[in-house]
Design goal:
By secondary structure, this protein is α/β, with parallel strands linked by helices. The chain folds into 2 domains: 158 residues, 3-Layer(aba) Sandwich (Rossmann fold), CATH 3.40.50.300; 212 residues, no CATH class. The longest helix has 45 residues. The radius of gyration is 25 Å and the shape is globular. About 9% of the residues have low confidence.
Length: 413
């Protein structure tokens, strides 16, 4: 296990002293991006805890790693993206009151603590606060900000670092993603393997294309005629519709076996669950779309500054070094590459001015130049302001429409 900890300095600093001294915490929250190795290390830690003082430590460790040890309970969402009270009530809350079957400890893993429903989280609180001495809980979360504060505050936090872009790109390439696309997705995901895999899926590719069209149309000053927010919201809501369809099928299957007396109650519970889960999925998709818009704007600034190595959308660079939407994904206008940036001439007072970024041509990029990098950075600030606004549950259509015009305004200041 020591070797597994070497790639995670914070985890090593927190876990190694406690585990080597035989004094592990009663509750940990392992957090970090998808693909960081949290689950693999959790199994190794559980194996060590359950092998301690065992008659056959090797057998105990092997069974724990394989998930067959009776004193290891691993809980994940029962489906539909959410952990329910029924997932943890008997498996964790009730089981934690019973002594181990064969080991000196019991280990409970909550995989997906960021998907704990409010009722399930509240049901777990007392177990987290006052567990028996032989109980150890490990909560795993890819999105720590979405873990309820009351849950996180009762755990010792352990941070895991994501895989390197090269390692993540290699994983995507093995899965069949073209090498240039894999390299770009690894950088766009900021080391989160789950996000990278999502972007590699057909739905993720559609979301990425919609975000790119949004950025390019706004940069070109064509928002009034092209309305790029509509296509973006269609892609976001398609994700919600897919999840709602999945939930509807699960609800139908359960309603088919419950008594007639309970159907109304169960139906209402599924309606509420569907609404909550769909909202979470769409909110996540919209947040990812905003991140992709920001990446496009920042890549434009990097190219204008001659820093092509910093471009995350590297698979969108054409032969002339311009950042362009792939053929067939309207519009085809791109951003200026290093050659255009090199053609910049000094503006008033010695400041930079990119040829083609001012005058009656609007903010569209052409062979002569494009928006100045400082203006692109200002546009990124507008995206971040919109992200904050959306947290307040404003109308998404109006917020994204306003964002398109605010990006145009930032590029024309």
């Amino acid at each position: 296990m020591a070797v597994a900890l070497d790639d995670h300095p914070h985890a090593r600093a927190v876990l190694a002293p406690a585990l080597s001294a035989g004094r592990p915490s009663h509750a940990y929250l392992f957090h970090g991006p998808g693909g960081a190795g949290k689950r693999r290390l959790t199994r190794l830690i559980a194996a060590d805890l359950l092998a301690e003082n065992a008659a056959d430590p090797g057998s105990a460790r092997a069974r724990a790693i394989s998930g067959a040890h009776p004193d290891l309970t691993w809980v994940a969402p029962s489906g539909a993206h959410e952990i329910l009270v029924s997932d943890i009530d008997a498996a964790v809350v009730a089981a934690a009151t019973r002594t181990p079957f064969e080991a000196t400890r019991r280990v409970f893993v909550i995989d997906g603590a960021d998907s704990l429903g409010e009722a399930a989280a509240n049901r777990l609180l007392k177990t987290l606060e006052e567990p028996p001495a032989y109980v150890h809980l490990i909560l795993i979360a890819d999105r720590p900000a979405e873990v309820m504060a009351t849950i996180a505050s009762r755990c010792q936090l352990v941070r895991f670092d994501g895989p390197s872009p090269a390692a993540l790109a290699a994983e995507l390439a093995v899965a069949g993603v073209p090498a240039d696309t894999a390299a770009a997705l690894a950088r766009l995901s900021l080391g989160d393997a789950n996000v990278a895999r999502e972007l590699a899926s057909p739905a993720g590719a559609e979301l990425r294309a919609a975000a790119e069209r949004f950025a390019v149309i706004a940069i070109a000053g064509e928002s009034a005629t092209a309305a790029p927010w509509r296509g973006l919201l269609e892609a976001v809501r398609a994700r919600g519709e897919a999840v709602a369809a999945e939930l509807a099928a699960a609800a139908e299957a359960e309603l088919a076996i419950v008594s007639r007396r309970d159907r109304t109650r169960v139906g209402r519970e599924w309606e509420e669950r569907t609404r909550r889960v769909r909202r979470r999925v769409e909110t996540g998709a919209l947040g990812l779309a905003l991140t992709l818009i920001e990446a496009w704007l920042l890549d434009g600034a990097a190219l204008a500054w001659g820093a092509a190595d910093e471009v995350r959308n590297s698979d969108r660079l054409d032969a002339s070094g311009r950042l362009s939407v792939p053929a067939g994904e309207r519009p085809a206008a791109g951003l200026p590459g290093p050659a255009a940036a090199a053609a910049a001439v000094a503006g008033p007072g010695g400041g930079p001015r990119v040829r083609g970024s001012a005058g009656g041509g609007g903010v569209g990029a052409d062979a002569g130049g494009g928006p100045a990098p400082e203006r692109l950075i200002a546009a990124v600030a507008e995206v971040e302001a919109t992200r904050i606004t959306l947290v307040l549950n404003v109308n998404e259509d109006l917020a994204l429409e306003a964002l398109a015009y605010r990006i145009e305004d930032a590029l024309n200041r």
